[in-house]
Amino acid sequence: MSVSYESSKVVFQGIKDAGIRSLSALPETWLGLLLQQAEKDPDVRLIQVAREEEAIGIAAGAYFAGERHILALRIRETSGLEL
Q1: Per-residue pLDDT averaged across 37-46, rounded?
Q2: Rounded CA gap, 25 and 31, in Å?
Q3: Beta pairing class for 69-72 and 22-25
Q4: DSSP H or E stretch at residue 69
Q5: Residue 38 near residue 16 (C-beta atoms within 8 A)
Q6: How far apart are the first and last CA of the chain?
Q7: 16 near 42, Cβ under 8 Å?
Q8: Which of 29, 58, 64, 74 could cross-link with 24 by S-S, CB 3.0 to 4.6 Å?
Q9: 59 vs 76: CA distance, rounded Å
Q10: For residue 19, how many C-alpha atoms fall within 13 Å in the half-sphere facing its CB?
Q11: From the CB of residue 8, how many other CB atoms can be counted at a distance below 10 Å?
């Protein structure tokens, strides 16, 4: 599936259908349309981060608080973060 407005709508609707109400994201071009969907939706909390590690920390906190959360980012080899 290529990045388009329609594919971003489908992915975002799947996120909502899964009961996910918060997401942390490292803003990138390929995520732009998906993040626009999240910003517009009053039922979803979008947390934009500056580094991948921040998003993982936020996701861990959401998990321990019992909240369903999703990470929207691409881990790069140069980030220093190894999984």
Answers
A1: 94
A2: 8
A3: parallel
A4: strand 69-72
A5: no
A6: 25
A7: no
A8: 58
A9: 18
A10: 3
A11: 20
What gap in Å lies between CA 82 and CA 44, rounded to an integer?
29
Which tokens in the block code for residue 32?
A: 């732009």
Contacts of 32 (CB under 8 A, 6+ apart): none
The per-residue DSSP string of 30-57 comes to GGHHHHHHHHH-TT-EEEE-SSHHHHHH
pTM of the shown model: 0.77
| Structure tokens given for 42 | 């009053």
Give SS3 for 74: coil
* Residue 52: per-residue pLDDT: 86
Instruction: Find where tokens 């732009």 sit.
Output: 32
For residue 11 the two structure tokens come to 């992915």
pLDDT of residue 27: 84
Alpha-carbon span 62 to 5, nearest angstrom: 28
